[in-house]
Fold:
Amino acid sequence: DAMVIQNPRYQVTQFGKPVTLSCSQTLNHNVMYWYQQKSSQAPKLLFHYYDKDFNNEADTPDNFQSRRPNTSFCFLDIRSPGLGDAAMYLCATSSGRTAPTDTQYFGPGTRLTVL
Amino acid sequence: GESVGLHLPTLSVQEGDNSIINCAYSNSASDYFIWYKQESGKGPQFIIDIRSNMDKRQGQRVTVLLNKTVKHLSLQIAATQPGDSAVYFCAETHSGGYNKLIFGAGTRLAVHP
Structure:
């Protein structure tokens, strides 16, 4: 089945130690998104890629970076995780071809714990 | 500014009853609305969507109603089941610019046997 896959599902890191979360998709979608979701809150968009074009949200801290080496994969790098970065990180994809009805499909998320 | 919010943070229903989850939005330019279901520890799952040129859309056991006059969106779940227990988010977007979703705060639906 076509899907959005996130690895790992659970990640533990130490304060200040760089960490990378990964997302892959078999939907052949043009757009990939990264969201941060804290407990009992709605997902918050960090950035997205339309093909190779990177689009950063204005309030996304510089501590968060992303890479998209090819259509299928997208990475979220947290350069120096702080305790406040502990959250669920969600990857989503959309085709990018049917705006505005361009439905986003989410992966299962990676739960990041910062010690 | 733009916002999508929910009237009720928690909704408790009996199994078999119908559930109604409400959502208000403030951007009159919004033209596409989506409901997502998020179970504990999982990513949001697409349930149903509706475009602004419609006022009602039905799926399997779910119906979305859109009232553009008062900028209100609702999700109706018929014959609610324990498996419907989750947090439900409404989200909106508009065709100006890229497909940035604006999420509401979420409503937790608790289904009791």
